[in-house]
Every structure is written in C-alpha cells, then in structure tokens.
Amino acid sequence: MSPIDERGLRELMVESDDLQSDAMRTAERDLDDYVEAVLETHSGRTGSRDPGGMWPGWGKTGLVAGLAGAGTLLAAGPAAATTVDVQALQTAASLENLAVSTYKTALTLPFIGGADANAVVKAFAEKTMAQHTEHAEAFNGAVAKLGGKAQNDPNAKYAAVVQKAVPTIKGAGDVVALAISLEDVAAQTYAKNVSQVSTPELRQLFAGVAGVEAQHKAILLAVKALVDGGAPQLIALPPDAAKLPDAAGSVGFPDAYYPTDKASPVEEGAVK
Amino acid sequence: MSTDKRPEMQISERELAAMTRDLDELHESTFPGVRKLLDEFSANLAHLTRGRAAGRRGFLMGVGGVSALGLAACSSNDTGSSNKTTTAAPPATTAAATYEGDLKVVALAAALENLAVTAYTGALDAAGKGTLGTVPPAIGVFVQTAMKQHKDHAGAWNGVLSKAGKPTITDAPLSITADQVKALGAAKSVPDVAKLALDLENAAAQTYTFATANVTDAGGIMTAATIQPVEAMHAAILNFVLGQYPVPDAFIGVDKAVKPDALMPK
C-alpha cells in the first residue's frame, strides 16, 4: 500500500471499526455487570435498589477526598467505596473529554488535519478521537446508571496545560508531544484506578481502557521519533521497515512496567 | 542477521540509541516500585499457602504496595534484579495442581511470559539462520527489547512463586504452547513471525485484563495492571509493522485471554 493510499487506510479503519464495535459491546456488558453488582449489594443491605438512598451525597465529592488510599477506603465501608467508583469514572470522563477536544483542535491545524498533513497521522487522530469519545460515553454511562452526574467537561488541570501549550505549537511534533502527555496521564490514571475501584468488573473496565491509551502512546512515540528525526515519510501503513532506524523498534514501549506516578487523583475530575 | 541499507536521517543512529538508553533508564527506574509490590504480594500469598488467610489485612498490605509503586522514585541499573528473586527458588516444575487461587494466575502469567520469550528467541534464531529472509534492523531491536521485557515479567512472577514457597515456572506448560511452537517452526518471513507475536501479545494483554478482575490480592491486581499496557503497546507496534491499524479496539477485551485452565501438568 502506498503511504498515501487513503482508501486502503479507510478500509483498514472500517475493519477495525467492526472489531471495536464488538469490544464496545463487551465493555458495555462489563459496565452493566458492574452496575448490577453494586445495586444487588445495596439491595441486600438496605432492601432498596435506589442508589440515591444509599449515597445521598453524590454531589459531595469532598466526602472521601481526604482518604489516603484504597485501604482506608475499604475500611470506610461500601458507600464510600462506591462514591470513589463514581469519582473515578467522572475523572476518567474528564480526561477523555479533554482528549477529544484536543484532537478536535489538532485536526484543525494544517499539519495534522489539513493539506500538509500526513494521511496516516490524520487518520490516526480521527480514529483516536472517536475512541476517546467512546470511552467518555462508557464512563459517563456507568456514572448515570449509578445515579451520579455525567462529567461533560474537560479535566480542568490538564485543560490548562493544553491551553498553555497550544500557542507554542509550531509543527506536528509539538502536537504529537502534547498528545503523548495526555495519553500517558490517562493510561497511568486508569492503571492506578484498577487498584482503587471496588468491583472486579470495574477493575476490568479500567484495565481495558488503560491498555488502549497506552497503545495510542506507543504509536505516538514512534511517530514523534520519526517526525523529530526528519523522516515523516516513514510514517505509513505499512511502514518501510527496512528504512526505519534501529531505535524505532523500541521507542514505543519504554517501560517494562507501566508507571502510575502521574496518575490523576480519583477526585480530580469529579463533578462538584 | 542480514540487514538492509540504512536511510539518511536528520537524527543520527547514535542520537536515537541515546534516546533508547534514556528510555531504558526510565524502565529501570520503575522496577524497584514493582519489586516492592511483588514482595508484598508474595508475603500475602505465603500467608495463604501456610493456611492463614490474609483477608482484609492482606488486602490492605497490598494496597500499601500500590501506594509504594506510585511513590517509587529511586533508580536502579540492576538489570538482573528480577532474577535475584528466583535464585533461592525450589526446583522448577510445571504441575498445574501445585498452584491454586491467585498463585495459579501467577503461574499462568509466568508460563505465558516464558512462551513469549521462547517465541522471540526462536525468531532471533531463525533470523540468524536466514530462514526469515532479510530482517530489518528495527525489527531486530523490537524483538530484543520486547523479549527482555517479557523476561523481566517472567522473573517477577517467578519471584512471587518462589517467595510463596512454590516451584517456579521455567518453561511454558500451556495448552496453546504446542500450536504456537509449530507455527513458529513454519514461519518463513518476518510478517509470519510478526503475526505470531501479535497473537501472543494480544493474548497476554487480554490475560492480564482478565487477571485484574480475577486475582484477589491488591498487589497482584496492580502488578497485572502495570504489565497489561506494556503487552498492549507491543501489540500496537506489531500491528503497525504489519500494516494493520495499530489500535483496532477501543477496549481491550478478554475473549482471547488464556485462562488458568490452560496451565497443564507436564
């Protein structure tokens, strides 16, 4: 396939859309299972499946903000645990909303979505934006089913970072670097959330999305290395592997264990 | 391994290699935190194997490890650190019945990592013999780097088994191993090997996703959560190399996960 064979690329994306739809259905099932598990637990304890009766303080996000960690959380009881679950989902949605808006803005730039853009980079930005939209919908869907408020705003902390960075963007490499940062924060946050949420279903959901954000980062790291190396022509599907620099084989996955030190606190993007 | 002619680039190979070294240092800096996490996981499992359920105390200990992981800031250049945890291990065996509960998932993970190492080692051997044709240098670097990370993972999981008083897993006693080895033997080109590796990486990523929901110890859950994205990243690069869309799914599922019942007696 030629590096600029957009039709071939679109066909690949259609194929992956089919795969993604299957995966999305699985994720929705996971969320439904999670919600059902929570409601059943609540029903068993109180005789009511109304989460509002158990968690009157949906808006009181400060309720558990001072909790030091999941251990304290567990000791605080199931209501606090579920509140944190909702906060984690809302924070996740805030990160996804920011990613969507950032890719949307990037696609208005000539070197990402315009005439000067590499076709593969443009298609990747479009598809990645769509995947982040699905993640946000999934996280907010779970929040809504639990009676919480959907998080429709971008993460305030990192929105400020993006806002500060945008005027300094001079080329595709700058955009890719910004995207790497956002994908990394999301992946680290969800990897850590796996240990913070209260049910197996929700752990699986956060892990399932963490891996995808990490994949976005891997590809962006490879793209950035080629852009910075003055070889954007090698960003193609398939790439001309024979011409790739040696280090391109490893630049996409720098850690044997995904770090979590940049993970957003659970309450960071919770709805106030 | 035969190689192609190299293109001229504005950034030199030396600079790119330096970038890789920086990334290696980054990787090494994350390992001490994971090792601490694994130590606590092992301690909890040791309690269980002695017939004393860890219960909430065990969970809280594991959570402490999770916090430690996030706070770890020290660095290490001890690339053999994962091996150190296995030096005092009991003799290796592959009897599936030896492992129960979380330990069965740990044993499964070790076996799966060993299978990946075996596959990449086989690919390097085949490349050395010229069986795969001309192998681009970047592909060789990918194989070596991914293989090293899988070795780290296997060493980590075996460290848990060893400290829990269980035999380590030094091979790949899985129901899928024979087919994978056969497929590797039939590979005649780089894409053939890349497809095989992609299947294994996808299976590993999904297995760890499964593990996050099916392991009970917080330290074990967190370890799986920090390895899963790495296997997923390997898969993304392999998809890219194969000319396939690199991030095909918005969610990583579990339908291709290797389940604990795939762990076989010898």
From TrEMBL, chain A:
Domain of life (superkingdom): Bacteria
Matches recorded under CDD domains: Ferritin_like
InterPro entries hit by this protein: Ferritin-like, Ferritin-like_SF
Coiled-coil intervals: none
Annotated transmembrane regions: none
A Pfam family recorded for this sequence: Ferritin_2
Protein name: Ferritin-like protein
Protein's organism: Actinokineospora auranticolor
Automatic annotation (TrEMBL), chain B:
InterPro entries to which the protein is assigned, alphabetical: Ferritin-like (IPR012347), Ferritin-like_SF (IPR009078)
Superkingdom as given in the UniProt entry: Bacteria
Pfam families the UniProt entry points to: Ferritin_2 (PF13668)
UniProt cross-references to Gene3D superfamilies, sorted A to Z: 1.20.1260.10
Protein name: Ferritin-like protein
